[in-house]
Amino acid sequence: VSGTNVLEVTPKGALTGTSFVYSAPIGVAGGQRWQLSAYANGFYPGASAITSDASLYALWFANSTDLYPTTFAADTLVQTLTNLPDNELMTLMSGTVTVPVGAAFMRVALRSVVSQGSGLHYDFVGARLQP
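Below the sequence we write its predicted structure tokens.
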């Protein structure tokens, strides 16, 4: 969060956009518990309203080569932040997920909803196996 690089998500052209950005596959086993986290903030250089929403998800896959939307089980929503303010302080999203029985891989996903003139920044996205 104190570094110099962030992931920036903005809509293409004049459209409102919803998108997923997700991690490489992480090997998991059914019943494991994982702590997921990410920091996010909005930015609005050309917008008159604060409208960007950020969500943190766990996506479940049977194979390491599967990509969204070919998931093994329903996505697990960890947390959503709506109407993120435009400031230097980032807001933490975090929570614990339990791996569905039969899932072999997880991808940590960031779901962004942004409109023209707005965007989101993400930083320090992580996944940690709980003991």
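The CA atoms of residues 61 and 67 lie 8 Å apart.
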